[in-house]
Write a structure and sequence with these properties.
Length: 428
């Protein structure tokens, strides 16, 4: 079982994400602690937010007060809702959140059952629950839970994304394929820019573009996802982000990138990646050796070439810490200029791709090392007076319209009459 922990300050976003799953029939509430829901199980973000806020002193201010955890049993683990609720409850107790308000949700949106847990790190006395050594504590808990419930143990190949497959544009279910990759990756990995997010998605043959334009006098900015072919070119029909719920739109993505940047800086996460990359760089004579050594350590790299074949960007994806970092962020010696100067096979432009082994969807499931894509630059596509032609830009904008019915993150949902829900005496 794999645990993925995210810390931030967007309580509304975390609860709304789970509400969308429930509304779509892809999720349900399994357990609550110090949070009340109606007896019919109907979920109100506004009511739940008020319960969370009551447990936190109003004078406390922090940008890292919310914790959002996903617990992912192996796909072959078959557990009842009661067992899943017990696992979530015991995990929170042992992690130090037994007295905190929290909600345990079951999701079934990516062909396997898993849990999402939302809680707060702020105690009733205003103190903050420490997040130091969360990884070590969480690993010990999940190891014990695996033994207690007879679950499949985690292994080197499992990771958080063992169920993900690269998109195959020749299939008819393109939207479902893209959703099955975008939804978990956007919450599992830490990245600070659209370019880093694009590099991560490219491992699974998905591209993403930021598009700005004007529709009947209204300016808008949005995201469009596309399937990519073996050469990194867009194929198939572009898909606007609203098709995958607002959680994967530009505003939510920008919040995620900001929170990721704060977490990466606060925990010095980049230092771990820098250490691994530096060791591989020291022992490698060619770019191919460098890449192979990184993959053995659980890292992928994405190279970005310009039209002239010049390497202008490099991104490292650390699957161990689930962090995406541009080479320049690690240091000058890891930048595109430095590595293209050091490795001749990196400086050869698109010819470099011929050296890469192709990876099928089946092997990608097993290895988590999908083929590397060459990324375009990070500039948004801007169109004025779009007339609906058949150009690539027109193809993107033809599916992008201002997204309506978006909730303001600062506006709670209408309040409903609350009725206390108890389960086995665990709520207080």
């Amino acid at each position: 079982m794999i645990a993925d922990i995210h810390i931030g300050n967007n309580l509304y976003g975390a609860l709304a994400y789970n509400q969308e799953k429930i509304d779509a029939g892809l999720g349900r509430i399994l357990e609550t602690n110090r949070v009340f829901v109606p007896s019919d199980g109907q979920f109100s973000v506004g009511d739940c937010m008020r319960d969370f806020e009551r447990a936190m002193p109003s004078q406390v201010t922090t940008t890292r007060g919310i914790i959002h955890i996903s617990l992912n049993p192996h796909p072959e683990d078959k557990l009842t809702d009661g067992q899943l609720a017990d696992i979530g409850w015991e995990y929170m107790e042992r992690l130090g959140f037994g007295d905190q308000p929290y909600m345990i949700f079951k999701h079934e949106d990516i062909d396997r059952q898993h849990l999402h847990i939302v809680s707060t790190r702020v105690r009733s006395d205003g103190s903050l629950i420490s997040d130091k050594k969360n990884y070590e504590k969480s690993k010990k808990i999940t190891d014990d839970l695996e033994q207690k419930y007879g679950l499949h143990p985690k292994d080197k190949k499992q990771g958080e994304a063992w169920q993900l497959s690269p998109v195959d544009a020749s299939r008819s279910d393109l939207k479902k394929q893209v959703a099955n990759v975008v939804k978990p990756l956007a919450t599992m990995y830490k990245f600070q820019s659209l370019g880093e997010y694009r590099a991560l998605l490219s491992l699974y043959n998905i591209g993403v573009e930021k598009v700005e334009g004007n529709n009947q006098g209204h300016k808008y900015t949005g995201l469009v996802y596309s399937a990519l072919d073996a050469e990194g070119n867009r194929v198939g029909k572009p898909l606007k982000s609203s098709l995958f719920e607002k959680t994967y739109g530009i505003e939510s993505l920008e919040r995620t990138m900001k929170e990721s940047g704060e977490e990466i800086k606060a925990k010095s996460i980049a230092a771990d990646t820098r250490k691994l990359v530096s060791a591989s760089l020291k022992d490698s004579r060619t770019g191919s050796e460098f890449r192979a050594d990184l993959q053995r350590k659980g890292l992928d790299l994405v190279l970005r070439y310009g039209n002239g074949g010049r390497l202008f960007g490099i991104t490292f994806i650390n699957h161990n810490s689930r962090t995406v970092l541009n080479g320049s962020a690690l240091g000058k010696e890891f930048s595109a200029n430095a590595l293209s100067s050091r490795f001749a096979d990196f400086a050869q432009g698109n010819n470099h791709r011929e050296e890469l082994p192709s990876v099928s969807s089946t092997s990608a499931k097993e290895t988590l090392q999908p083929s590397v894509q060459h990324e375009p630059d990070d500039k948004p596509t801007t169109v004025k007076g779009y007339s609906g032609d058949d150009s690539p830009v027109g193809s993107l904008l033809s599916v992008l319209t201002p997204e309506t019915n978006q909730h303001d993150d600062n506006q709670p949902m209408p309040k409903k009459k609350k009725k206390k829900k108890r389960r086995y005496g665990r709520q207080v």
